[in-house]
């Protein structure tokens, strides 16, 4: 299989147009609004040529784009008075996991997500968004607090996967993920999960059990990274593209398979080209989902959640 171009090569013209928009918006020249509108139209036209031909590998690159909005960007844009909580009351605080309470549309919600970090120093501090078991235990602690007081739960998923280090395994990485799956599945409050970038394996699933699961259209969700799959099945990193194609990691594939419930559209060029519009799109669908779920009695919510996950993986019924 021939290797496709990196997405970073494809987006060069769009990035140049975006830089022009940023310069115009910072200037004091006349007719800024019309010039910006014209440049945005050019981005739309360029994206219309690129989008239909994107390969799964290029989608992965968009999901990992270093300028893509991260968890705290969404929290700052959509929430008010976010109060972050730290520590799992057992071992330590895991900075790869962000969790706490905030106001959303006038009501208190619990927010849990993974944070990667922008600079090299931040990425090291956040462990590149790869949680340790204490991160999942912290997330569960905050979720239990939300359930106690009847607060809805919002999770923002963006992780390459759970951290595979020796220390994480010694402290019970697999048990922490499994326990989260068990406990979250029976929580009596609405849970909305949004995959905003990478949805990697059990690292994502540990906070990905919910009543409504949504994905940004250029994010991905999979049991393993394409690179990991190529290494295990093909023992060849040249097979990454083939692995990505076979794994069905795109949002549309996952919607067709019933793994997710909704695709949130991204602006032309991807979420990183117009963060403000991305926030508006997520806000709209998140608000709709919460309003719909809050109207349901707890028993109905739990039964629908149970049936939702029981149906996954059923290809043919006899």
Describe the structure concisely for a colleague.
Helices cover 49% and strands 15% of the residues. The chain is of the alpha/beta class and 318 residues long. It has two domains: 7-53; 58-309, 2-enoyl-CoA Hydratase, Chain A, domain 1 (Alpha-Beta Complex), CATH 3.90.226.
Structure report:
With 318 residues, the protein is an alpha/beta fold. It folds into two domains: 7-53; 58-309, 2-enoyl-CoA Hydratase, Chain A, domain 1, CATH 3.90.226. It is 49% helix and 15% strand. The chain has 15 helices and eight strands. Strands 1, 2, 3, 4, 5, 6, 7 and 8 form an eight-stranded mixed beta sheet that branches. Helix 10 links the parallel strand 5 (191-200) and strand 6 (212-216). The longest helix is centred in the last third of the chain and has 20 residues, at 275-294. It is globular, with a radius of gyration of 20 Å.
The arrangement of helices and strands along the chain is HHHHHEEEHHEHHEHEEHHHEHH
- The 3D shape can be described as globular
In CATH's first tier, which class of the largest domain applies?
Alpha Beta
- DSSP strand tally: 8
Stretches where pLDDT falls below 50 for ≥5 residues?
Answer: none
What structural class results from the helix and strand content? Answer: alpha/beta
Stated plainly, the CATH topology of the largest domain is called 2-enoyl-CoA Hydratase, Chain A, domain 1
The overall number of domains is 2
Largest sheet: 8 strands, mixed
Roughly how many Å is the radius of gyration?
20 Å
Strand residue content: 15-25%
The count of helical stretches stands at 15
CATH architecture of the largest domain: Alpha-Beta Complex
- Please give the alpha-carbon distance between the first and last residues: 37 Å
Mean pLDDT: 93
